Write the C-alpha cells for this entry.
Amino acid sequence: MHFETKSSSSESGEGGATGARPDLRVLLVEDSPVICGLITEIINDVPGVKVAESVESEQDAIEAVGRLAVDVVILDLQLRKGTGFGVLRAMRDMPKKPIVVVLTNFALRSYRETALALGARDFLDKSRDYDRLPAILTEIAASQPA
C-alpha cells in the first residue's frame, strides 16, 4: 500500500518566500495501515516536514529510497515482507543516504545496537517514544541546509 501526500507550494515552503527552506521529505516504512495513518498525522503536523510517501515492505522501501529524494526514513523493523534491518543494510551502499529514525515495537537492546551500527540516527520504541518524533524531525529539519 502506497500513500503519497502532496501539498501546495504555499504549504510546503517550496516556491514561497525567497530563501525559504524546502520541506523535510520523509519516507515512512510501516506495514500497519492504522499506525501508518497515525504516524503520518504526527509527521505532517510538524512545521516544515511532510511525508513524501509511505511503503510497507523492505523491497518497496529500498526502491523508494533510490527513487525519491527523501531526507529522512522513519523505519519499522518488523515488516510483513522483509525487515527494517534489510533496508538499513541496502542503504549502506547507496550514494545519498537519508537519515534513519527507527520506530519499532521491538525495542530490544540487541535490535537497538544493530540498528545504530547499521546507520540509524535514532531508535524509538513505538509504545513509549513516539511522542519524541516531532522534536527529532524538527531538529533534523533545522540542521538541513537552506
